[in-house]
Amino acid sequence: MIALMSPPELEAALRAVGAERYHDRHAFHGLLHGGKLTRSQVQAWALNRYVYQAHIPLKDAALIARCYDPALRRAWRSRLADHDGDDMREGGIARWLRMTDALGLDRDLVVSMRRALPGTLFAVDAYVRFVAERTLLEAVASSLTELFAPKIIAERVEGMLANYDFVDRDALAYFTPRLTEAPQDSAFALDYCQRHADTVEKQQQVIDALKFKCAVLWSMLDALYVAYVEPGIVPPGAFTP
Amino acid sequence: MIALMSPPELEAALRAVGAERYHDRHAFHGLLHGGKLTRSQVQAWALNRYVYQAHIPLKDAALIARCYDPALRRAWRSRLADHDGDDMREGGIARWLRMTDALGLDRDLVVSMRRALPGTLFAVDAYVRFVAERTLLEAVASSLTELFAPKIIAERVEGMLANYDFVDRDALAYFTPRLTEAPQDSAFALDYCQRHADTVEKQQQVIDALKFKCAVLWSMLDALYVAYVEPGIVPPGAFTP
């Protein structure tokens, strides 16, 4: 029989999932921050990753749309503000578009999402549906990849600034607020999961939700690798440098 | 052949729908603000109407969850703040519960929604699904009953204060912010519909969405009337005074 984990044990189990499955371990991430990609390959990454960015507020609203707890809705609403902005500040999506601008991508092309890889679209769609359709606990837990975001962001930003002359600090402005937003969000979500996963079954659901989300991010890098690195065959209709 | 309406013509057509179908014309509204109801009947109204209030943020989040336009999402997000509150102010749902408290209703009973009328639950559910499933234009248009809210709120508040000794201004605090929120929201939604209903078919969809929403509000008062006024037979399981 499996025993119920204490809150610190559950956190340790979740961090173990990240250590094994988070996309900082993917070969494409190594190439990206290690300065091994061409400008075109970085363009392909930014254009595809935009699809993920553009759907984050939709998945967060889908969570709010099924949540009868005003306190959880209020807390989760800050994620909408982080990505869509407000009267005082630019949101994450607008900042991502500053990066695609800086990389020389046509903004309408990026926003249209028409040239994204099928693998990107399927993975993002699976994530949005997961949040809309699974239990609220699983929906919250699927956000827990943010536990691991500060490390990958630091690697990405420093690596890209050091290695690419076509990228400057302003182009990477997206990432700076994420260094404070992601830890706040993940601390809230982790605490929620620790408090609400009060059976062995629910704790397993939380762990599986995080594994699922890691797979979403991982498969987005798989799709980029196959299309733009090795063997480098771009699917018909997708972005060609 | 039907001609495309100008923006003012469309507004006039929408206001004509309200003049004919808004629930200020329902007999139950007349009884409520005319002081003709007992405290128990006012309790039944407040308890059932809570179901509607509790679902408003969910339907607004459902709209955001299907909207790829960050500007529309940002504007619509203010409705979530109005109902759920933020660090600075109480939201509409909390204010509604102050009224049910003042009416002597048990808060857990109200929040559980277990004793609401089936007709209330069905109408509210139909509204949430309409917003989640119809076109974005129809979803926006279904909010346009707010065009008519200030009048009914003024009637309700003044009538209830004048006629019921068990209601005071604090109990009706829900309505005061709505007098400024609803006109801002409806002006935005009307402008959106005027700009986006650019075919005869879409203009008809906008009008039909408002008719649908009027029917939602109307049928909630029908359910109250039948159960608690005439013939006054409470469905099994529903709130009994």
Task: Describe the structure concisely.
Chain A is built from eleven helices and no strands. Chain A has 241 residues and is an all-alpha fold.
What characteristics describe this protein?
241 residues, 70% helix, mainly alpha, homodimer, Heme Oxygenase, Chain A
What would CATH call the homologous superfamily of chain A?
Heme oxygenase-like
Number of extended strands of chain A:
0
Ends distance of chain A: 54 Å
Helix content of chain A: 55-70%
Taking the sheet with the most strands of chain A, its summary is: none
Could you name the ranges of chain A where pLDDT drops below 50 across 5 or more consecutive residues?
none
Assembly type: homodimer
Q: What fold name stands as the CATH topology of chain A?
A: Heme Oxygenase, Chain A
Largest interface (CB < 8 Å): A-B, 25 and 25 residues
